[in-house]
Amino acid sequence: MHGSTTILFALVAFLALALIYFFARFFPVGLWISAMASGVRVRISILIGMRFRRIAPGDVVRPLIKATKAGLNIDINEMEAHVLAGGHLNRVVDALIAAQAANIDLSFENCRAIDLAGRDVLEAVKTSVNPKVIETPIVAAVAKDGIELKAKARVTVRTNLDKLVGGAGEETIQARVGEGIVTTIGSSGTHKEVLENPDKISETVLSKGLDSGTAYEILSIDIADVDVGRNVGAQLQMDQAEADRRIAQAKAEERRAMAVAKEQENIAAVQEMRARVVEAEAEVPRAMAEALRSGKLGVMDYYKMQNVQSDTHMRESIAGTGKPASSEPATVKK
Questions:
Q1: Exposure pattern of 185-214 as b/e (b: 16+ CB <10 Å)?
Q2: How many CA atoms lie within 13 A of 30 on its CB side?
Q3: What is the pLDDT of residues 232-262, one digit of tens each?
Q4: Pairing of strands 139-142, 147-159
Q5: Is the dihedral of CA 177, 181, 182, 187 positive or negative?
Q6: Quick check: helix, strand or coil at residue 164?
Q7: What angle do CA 148, 149, 150 make, to 5 degrees?
Q8: Can you give the C-alpha Rg of the chain in angstroms?
Q9: Cα–Cα distance, 62 to 90 (Å, whole number)
Q10: Rounded Cα distance, 66 and 62, in Å
Q11: Do 174 and 138 contact (CB within 8 A), yes or no?
């Protein structure tokens, strides 16, 4: 009997603890009391409903208490919807409080849109109150005299809350300022003009309205540093001269190759002509032998022809034409 009583007592204690845990889990009484003590009237049924909608009641009630204390009138259903959409409710409320303190007109709907767009709305409000400086990377440009200049600028910007949703970010500002620096330096007659008046770059770039379509308003553009780089014009001229030299060398090589080919062609033609002459000379004895056999040429005619050739060689030798006399003995005329 005593053992049964002990088991029953343990079972009752377990059920009581389970009931207390369930009540504390689904009925956030402590949070409800804190809200009521802060002047925020919220029904306990709404807090229980947040539990079933998988929302931590503290993530909504604490920002609501903060907003109420700051004098902001925000509907709890809109706050709960923002949490369900994946927004940062606490950051949104802090941004609204900061905007109210700075006399910036910013509604909860706009603040929600900025936060859901992935922007840090609290940082945007702080930047709107306290402008920040964006430092551009070193931008290299070449003046008309061929001298390269390297410039770096500091851009002071202020957040434009009305264009924060859909507006371009810091990368666009840096790219546009860099483009403006290149254009200004490139249009300068000499690099000395830029070195003497670096504020000319700031004035020219600032007048282009580079903040159009961005989430920022450009307040000023200051040239932090300008350095002289390479003499690009001289380098280009050297490269052009080297290219011209290589082209001339290639053309000369082409002409030489054509001359060699022409010479080889002439030598081949001469050799061909000599071969034909030798071939023709080889046919002469054959023709004479055939004439002798056929009776068209007599022996005396052959001797006369030999005497004529000997006389011709002798006259050419005496006349000094440079042709050697025939090595054959002269035939005696009969």
A1: beebeebebbeeebeebbebbbeeebbeeb
A2: 4
A3: 777 777 878 888 888 888 888 888 888 888 8
A4: antiparallel
A5: positive
A6: coil
A7: 125
A8: 54
A9: 8
A10: 6
A11: no
Spatial distance between the Cα atoms of 95 and 82, rounded to a whole number of angstroms? 15
Tokens of 103: 């006399």
The number of residues making up the chain comes to 334
The pLDDT score that the predictor gives to residue 331 is 42
Cα 257 from Cα 244, distance rounded (Å) = 20
Closest CA to 116 of 78, 77, 72: 78
Q: Which residues contact 66 (CB under 8 A, 6 or more apart)?
A: 90, 93, 94, 97
> What element of type H or E holds 157?
strand 147-159
Q: What is the dihedral of CA 116, 117, 122, 124, to 10 degrees?
A: -160
Q: Which residues pair with 147 in a beta bridge?
A: 231
How far apart are the two ends of the chain, measured CA to CA in Å?
A: 180
Q: Distance (Å, rounded) from C-alpha 50 to C-alpha 59?
A: 10
pTM: 0.54
Which tokens go with 129? 């109150």
Number of continuous H segments (helices) and E segments (strands) in the chain: 13, 4
Cβ-contact 251, 244 below 8 angstroms: no
Report the amino acid identity of residue 149.
Answer: L
| Tens digit of each residue's pLDDT (9 = 90 or more) over 256-280 | 888 888 888 888 888 888 888 888 7
Helix H or strand E segment including 265: helix 232-294
* Gap between the Cα atoms of 202 and 195, Å rounded: 13
- Structure token digits, residue 100: 């109210």
Q: Which amino acid is at 51?
A: R
Helix, strand, or coil (residue 140): strand
The three-class DSSP label of residue 189 is coil
Q: Kindly list the distances between the CA atom of residue 128 and the CA atoms of 10, 31, 217, 251, in Å, as whole numbers in the listed order.
A: 63, 35, 9, 67
Q: What is d(CA 124, CA 114) in angstroms, rounded to the nearest whole number?
A: 9
Question: In a 3-state reduction of DSSP, which class is residue 159?
Answer: strand
Look up residue 195 and give its two tokens: 């070195």
